[in-house]
Amino acid sequence: MSRPPFIAPPGGVRAYRLETARGAFAVLDAAPEREPRATALLVPGYTGSKEDFIALLGPLAEAGYRAVAVDGRGQYETPGPRERHARSAYGLAALAEDVLAQARALGTGGLHLVGHSFGGLVSRGAVLRAAAARHTPFDSLTLMSSGPGRIARLQRWRVRALCGGLPVLGPKAVWRMWHPAEDRSEVGDFLRRRWLAHTHAQLLAVGRTLRHEPDRVAHLAATGLPVHVLSGERDGAWPVPLLDRMAGRLGAHRTVVKGAEHSPNAEQPLVTAAVMVDFWAGLGR
């Protein structure tokens, strides 16, 4: 999971529930003082939340972009079905439809979609569904530390162990197993609180998707949407050489953020915001 450098939203950031045709989603919304050049919709990864992008919100707003980070269905402050059999509610198709509903609710003329880790798979799904309907609300897609399909073998085993232990041991015991050293800092308390707030059905269903999602790069390339593949120098979920090859297959803009690993949004937020803005500006938005 991403570890945000701080938790309290910066000045000018609003926390509220974004009402959509598919329900209400908790968001952090940062708007520039002047008319925004465009809007960025930020979709977090597995076990993550809108706070994973908290350090990007101020820099993006200062650069003239509205930035809206969202909790997906069943994540942290956005509720969702709790039944273990509610797999379809958290399947990639349903979560992609949620992103499309969020995009429509934002009602903006220019929209850049950004997905971190599993959020990249969801965002890709939203782009593909919009393309199939021959109407896309997006001006670009940024895949941040997100690969072409299922996660790497070691991470598949880790996610399998997590999903196997959760129904048996419960969330508190699983947390203690994965975090044996107690962290009583403000951020540490938040991470534990967020983990306990996640809907179990969502964790189980998304864990399955991460272990089985196929490579859909060719389908994404066929949409013609401008893509930015952004990552740190090292990544355990999708190895960096794999991300390099994916960018080549997409004809995508490629950025490697020095000093960052799986979460450049949290580990090097100022550099990450700057390269995202450069990509969007190069598109004229």
TrEMBL record:
Keywords per UniProt: Hydrolase
Record-level Gene Ontology MF annotations: hydrolase activity
Keyword field contains Signal: no
Pfam families attached to this UniProt entry: Abhydrolase_6
Top-level taxon of the source organism: Bacteria
UniProt keyword annotation of Manganese present: no
InterPro entries assigned: AB_hydrolase, AB_hydrolase_1, AB_hydrolase_fold
Domain AB hydrolase-1: 41-274
Region forming the signal peptide: none
Name this polypeptide is given: Alpha/beta hydrolase
Lineage: Bacteria, Bacillati, Actinomycetota, Actinomycetes, Kitasatosporales
Species, as recorded: Streptomyces sodiiphilus
